[in-house]
Design brief:
Length: 370
């Protein structure tokens, strides 16, 4: 899938971000095959987890995906023309004053409070027609969605939904990446009880990891996000997803330093032997987290070179003493098959989601496939 690293990538930017759209499509197919109970959506919020929503949406749509989710209305408006025949839903709900935008574009709000339900029903009555929407029930996340009090109110008064065509009732799993977490079964039971007291409607339950929890978590629509982009939905087990991203950083300088010399701000790393240090043009301004300082590694021809010193705004340094063949103009693999986003995240003390969504705009972006 990827061309080799070792100086063969020529471009003018300090770093190159390669995004394999065919691999994203292959991941969607894999998830679809694991969820035979209903369609599998594409969650493309945050610019498709930082990888380019327009490119990803177009590729998934060509593959057959007909359900998409974003976080904000603006994200939906930016891609609506690419998927005019698809369900496109906004997870963060109905902000007052945006009703006309939803109606005009056929974008669906995910209603997560009685106030949002009332506002959407009022708009339906004003227009004299049914308006489609999704309904979000909170079963344990305690962020968005009907809380138990609001749910009980709605269950006792279905008339509040008059004028609303419920496309799906959904909830969001808290700990699906931990298969034996008690919260998984607790949420499944709460969701079933919630639906039992509401008008009949299709359900949407599983996120990326939820798809791997088995038949009990199957529903009418799954909503994977991170797994589409190669993040492991089954932590602690082999990643079933295809790698999607490769970040190659050009070596700007290589210098020899004597034993005892320090590298980077505040001299946090000191050479214990005569050493060769390669500097690449990627730093925390590019989303290369400062928390990785002195931790993790890049790869060159499949072998690691350790990150040393502090990650700075525009530069990061690597110890290439053991790799004398590395020179100016060569490229180190910062993310890729040898060092996937989850591995980078471990060094940074975060998760693969943050690694991908932090990737900056200064990289030369190259899309493969599509």
């Amino acid at each position: 899938m990827w061309e080799g690293v070792g100086g063969g990538v020529a471009h003018t930017a300090a770093a190159r971000l390669e995004i394999d759209l065919d691999a994203i499509a292959a991941n969607w197919r894999l998830l679809r095959d694991r969820h035979p109970s209903g369609p599998v959506a594409g969650v493309v919020k945050a610019d498709a987890y930082g990888l380019g929503a327009r490119e990803v949406v177009a590729r998934l749509h060509r593959e057959g995906c007909r359900h998409f989710f974003v976080a904000h209305l603006g994200e939906a408006l930016a891609i609506r023309a690419l998927v005019p025949d698809a369900m496109l839903a906004v997870l963060n709900g109905l902000i007052p004053g945006t009703e006309a935008d939803y109606v005009a574009t056929g974008i669906l709000p995910v209603l997560g409070s009685l106030a949002e339900i009332d506002a959407w029903a009022t708009e339906a009555r004003r227009l004299g027609r049914l308006l489609p929407a999704l309904l979000h029930v909170d079963t344990g996340m305690s962020r968005l969605g009907l809380d138990p009090r609001e749910l009980a109110t709605l269950q006792a008064d279905h008339a509040r939904l008059d004028g609303i065509a419920l496309r799906y009732v959904m909830t969001h799993l808290v700990s699906s990446e931990i298969p034996d977490a008690p919260m998984n079964q607790r949420q499944r039971r709460r969701f079933a009880a919630a639906r039992a007291g509401l008008p009949p409607a299709p359900s949407s339950l599983a996120n990326s990891s939820g798809i791997f929890l088995g038949e009990a978590f199957a529903s009418d629509l799954a909503r994977p996000g991170a797994a589409l982009y190669g993040i492991n939905p089954t932590p602690g087990r082999p990643n079933p997803m295809h790698p999607v991203v490769r970040l190659l950083a050009r070596v700007l300088q290589v210098r020899d330093i004597p034993a005892g010399e320090t590298v980077g701000y505040n001299g946090t790393w000191r050479a214990e032997r005569p050493s060769r240090i390669a500097t690449v043009g990627v730093g925390y301004a590019d989303g290369w987290h400062r928390a990785q300082s002195g931790r993790g590694a890049a790869f060159f021809d499949g072998k690691p070179v350790p990150l040393v010193g502090r990650v700075s705004m525009d530069l990061t340094t690597y110890d290439v003493t053991a790799r004398p063949e590395i020179g100016v103009g060569d490229h180190l693999e910062l993310i890729g098959p040898s060092v996937p986003p989850d591995t980078v995240a471990e060094a940074a003390g975060t998760n693969g989601y943050e690694v991908l969504t932090s990737l900056g705009r200064r990289f030369a972006r190259v899309y493969r496939g599509g």
